[in-house]
Amino acid sequence: MRLASYKRILVPKRPVGVVGAITPWSFLSAVLASKLAPALAVGCSLVAKPAARTPLSALALGVLVERAGIPSG
């Protein structure tokens, strides 16, 4: 399919709702960040359920997100 050089195709990014993230105890920050970044990029909020062994790691990442200026909710 050929398009003329003056044509433009836009793909709108719209939030679809809340994203749930259930993370393992290993590599918690990496897994959580890999789910958080795409959700925030399109405007979705994220609810995280960290492993019972590592709740403070998720809390520390939440503090960093707040310091970065990302609004809660």
From TrEMBL:
Organism listed in the record: Ensifer adhaerens
GO molecular function: succinate-semialdehyde dehydrogenase (NAD+) activity
Family: Belongs to the aldehyde dehydrogenase family.
Gene Ontology process terms (BP): gamma-aminobutyric acid catabolic process
Domain Aldehyde dehydrogenase: 6-73
InterPro entries per the UniProt record, alphabetical: Ald_DH/histidinol_DH, Ald_DH_N, Aldehyde_DH_dom, Aldehyde_DH_Superfamily
SUPFAM superfamilies given in the database record: ALDH-like
Keywords associated with the record: Oxidoreductase, Plasmid
KW Oxidoreductase (keyword) present: yes
Protein name (database record): Aldehyde dehydrogenase family protein
Source taxonomy: Bacteria, Pseudomonadati, Pseudomonadota, Alphaproteobacteria, Hyphomicrobiales
Domain of life: Bacteria
